[in-house]
Amino acid sequence: MKILRLFMIVVLVGFVAACKGPGSTAVDDGMYDGSVAAGESGEATASGVDSGSLGTGGEFSEDMGMGEHSDQPDSRIVYFEFDKSEVAPGYAAMLETHARHLVDNPSWSLRLEGHADEKGSREYNIGLGERRAQAVRRIMMLQGVRADQLATVSYGEERPAADGSDEESWSLNRRVELVSGM
Question: What are the DSSP calls for 42-65, one per residue?
């Protein structure tokens, strides 16, 4: 069963990558209207998230999902290539682990925080961070996670993981963080 899920994720990621050619733009498929965007101050503002429906005690512990991935620097971050929003196949097992925990614990929730490096305009980077968070969300939902267990937020370039204007810093800033609770 795990092999079938992994295969399906790899096929999905490949399909999404094949559908998006160079210079194409993401299409809002309307799958989720509870997205969150960073305002002028960099603070998140919710649109459509009903926090009363999230349940209580539904948070991941810090070591959740770390078991088989403990050799990774951080099993709660998905990194992306420059100007890309496709999830690399190497993250399939980590996302499957988190998805399994959410499916097994319906009161738990995750916030998927999309980020970008400082290249590009502020508006473009907010959109890119959102596309990245939505890509992770789609993969988790294909594994059975309910929509109300996931929220997305895009901070664009506003909350860098690493300061600096070099490739190492930029690569650390192109990410989606899986944050417990919403």
Answer: S-EEESS--GGGS-SS----TTTT
